């Protein structure tokens, strides 16, 4: 094994901290900062300012939040944050806090604005608004408003309702806007954010996925040393990218395990066995456990029961594979690779490097009592960044661009008992839907599109010369940011028609295709 190469640049020395005042704005801001090629991390607003400053941030962004600065118990901010010489950018609630702490005036005089609002830039050419049109629309969401900027600040934008919608102090490198530049509906929002980062804070856009790969490879080598690691591959993008990174770092001291439970979609197992291995050179053990899973699922139609059985069998098979690998390779197998992502870390209040094994949303629930140390090379990345890293590592597009797919696989997309025949039938229908959606260029618009077989329902049809008693197939295309909420995708009728015709013509025993037009909530994305 070659020695650890130097990390080409130290992008994390350019860290921007995003202080989270609640309501999920912080994650979006952190993503936008990274889209500007600057590394960012989220910290809770309860973190003492001294601790934030100890991280040596190049800049700090104060997020929006649901509170009013006047509310009892509303999150506050130590003024020391503005006196450390670190550039600060306040947004919405962060802006109002900044205004109050620095001696400006914020009042709740009924000057509320929600949604798209015209903004007037009064100082074109300012640090934030250079090259931005004087009139543009921004996204507002506030009940209180700033009526007087703190001393030393220049007011650089206003709205019909709010006299101070942006202020800037170049000398102290402190900036703020009343609106949400991070949301898509704010025109030029990204430009304003980039102006803060590049012009206000003087940070160069150096953070790239190449940095991530170099940095992670070095860190993994350091962590694993000359030991060995195991990684469970699910066919999904997270475990694939995590495995590819670790493979690049430690080569064939990594063994991947792929449990083929027979519940995958058409072609997916082959993609892992052939294309993924070809692209990465990873050492792969495939366990063909279809028989075992189908036997365990026989006669079961309760969704929770199915999930439990699939999870249980998965753990048993994985443990056996792991024992075999240890028997083969010896006790040096000390590490387990996990595709934990940054949102999982933030949402579980983590970020401290403690082991947190994902349960519901991973491979199918890995055993919790494993005596392994975890290697989690994606802990700092958002999903879209993971895809970029995957691309950088040369993984097949089919894997990198893959939509989320549940651990229990097609087992929870058959309403009724899971049998081999039903799985084959669903695999055909699903493959047709996927093919047509891709052909129509809709993949980027759709978060995921479960195709569900209502195996316990008989529908009457007329096909050829006679009546048929087949089963309906449900299409469930949804758009979403994070699967917590979702809306049903408004697919073009021609595409739906094509999918419907092909499925009813080509898939035996299916005589009806229906579209699920329910948002989440109230419906979940999966049917079971
Ligand atoms: P729901 O159906 O809860 O799905 O709206 C939200 C997201 O989670 C996926 N999902 C699962 N993933 N094991 C998993 O690994 C599961 O049991 C499971 N159930 C749902 C679903 O595909 C969607 O992306």
Automatic annotation (TrEMBL):
ATP binds at residues 234-240. Its EC number is 6.3.5.2. It comes from the Bacteria. The active site is at residues 92, 180, 182. It catalyses: XMP + L-glutamine + ATP + H2O = GMP + L-glutamate + AMP + diphosphate + 2 H(+). InterPro entries: Class_I_gatase-like, GATASE, GMP_synth_C, GMP_synth_GATase, GMP_synthase, GMPS_ATP_PPase_dom, NAD/GMP_synthase, Rossmann-like_a/b/a_fold. Pathway: Purine metabolism; GMP biosynthesis; GMP from XMP (L-Gln route): step 1/1. Residues 207-402 form the GMPS ATP-PPase domain. GO terms for cellular component: cytosol. NCBIfam families: guaA_Cterm (TIGR00884), guaA_Nterm (TIGR00888), PRK00074.1 (NF000848). HAMAP family: GMP_synthase. Catalyzes the synthesis of GMP from XMP. Homodimer. This is GMP synthase [glutamine-hydrolyzing]. The lineage of its organism: Bacteria, Bacillati, Actinomycetota, Actinomycetes, Kitasatosporales.
């Amino acid at each position: 094994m070659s020695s650890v190469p130097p990390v080409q640049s130290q992008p994390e020395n350019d860290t921007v901290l995003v202080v989270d005042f609640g309501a999920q704005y912080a994650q979006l801001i952190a993503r936008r900062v990274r889209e500007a090629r600057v590394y960012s991390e989220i910290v809770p607003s309860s973190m003492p300012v001294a601790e934030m400053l100890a991280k040596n941030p190049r800049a700090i962004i104060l997020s929006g939040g649901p509170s009013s600065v006047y509310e009892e118990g509303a999150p506050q901010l130590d003024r020391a944050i503005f006196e450390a010489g670190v550039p600060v950018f306040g947004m919405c609630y962060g802006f109002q806090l900044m205004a109050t702490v620095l001696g400006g005036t914020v009042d709740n005089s009924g000057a509320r604005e929600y949604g798209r609002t015209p903004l007037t830039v009064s100082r074109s050419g300012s640090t934030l608004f250079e090259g931005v049109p004087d009139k543009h629309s921004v996204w507002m969401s506030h009940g209180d408003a700033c009526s007087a900027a703190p001393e030393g600040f220049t007011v650089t934008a206003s709205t019909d309702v709010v006299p101070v919608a942006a202020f800037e102090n170049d000398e102290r490198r402190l900036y703020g806007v009343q609106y949400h530049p991070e949301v898509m509906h704010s025109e030029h929002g990204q430009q304003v954010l980039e102006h803060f980062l590049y012009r206000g804070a003087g940070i160069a856009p150096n953070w790239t996925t190449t940095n991530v790969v170099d940095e992670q490879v070095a860190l993994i080598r350091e962590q694993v040393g000359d030991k060995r690691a195991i990684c469970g591959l699910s066919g999904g993008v997270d475990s694939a990218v995590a495995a590819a990174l670790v493979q690049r770092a430690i080569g064939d001291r990594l063994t991947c395990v792929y449990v083929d439970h027979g519940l995958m979609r058409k072609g997916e197992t082959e993609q892992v066995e052939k294309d993924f291995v070809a692209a990465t050179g990873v050492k792969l053990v495939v366990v063909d456990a279809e028989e075992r899973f189908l036997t365990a699922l026989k006669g079961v139609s309760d969704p929770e029961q199915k999930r439990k059985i699939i999870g249980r069998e998965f753990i048993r098979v994985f443990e056996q594979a792991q024992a075999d690998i240890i028997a083969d390779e010896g006790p040096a197998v000390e590490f387990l690779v996990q595709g934990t992502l940054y949102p999982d870390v933030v949402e579980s209040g983590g970020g401290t490097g403690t082991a947190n094994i994902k349960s519901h949303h991973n491979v199918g629930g890995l055993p919790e009592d494993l005596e392994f140390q975890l290697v989690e090379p994606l802990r700092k990345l958002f999903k879209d960044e993971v895809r970029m890293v995957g691309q950088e590592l040369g993984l097949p597009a089919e894997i990198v661009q893959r939509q989320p797919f549940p651990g229990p696989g097609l087992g929870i997309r058959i309403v009724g008992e899971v049998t081999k025949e039903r799985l084959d039938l669903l695999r055909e229908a699903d493959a047709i839907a996927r093919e047509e959606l891709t052909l129509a260029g809709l993949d980027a618009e759709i978060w995921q599109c479960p195709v569900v077989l209502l195996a316990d329902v008989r529908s009457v049809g007329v096909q050829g010369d006679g009546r048929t008693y087949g089963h309906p197939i449900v299409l469930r295309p949804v758009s979403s940011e994070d699967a917590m909420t979702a809306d049903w995708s408004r697919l073009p009728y021609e595409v739906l028609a094509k999918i419907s015709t092909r499925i009813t013509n080509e898939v035996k025993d299916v005589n009806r295709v229906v579209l699920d037009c329910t948002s989440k909530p109230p419906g979940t994305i999966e049917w079971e």
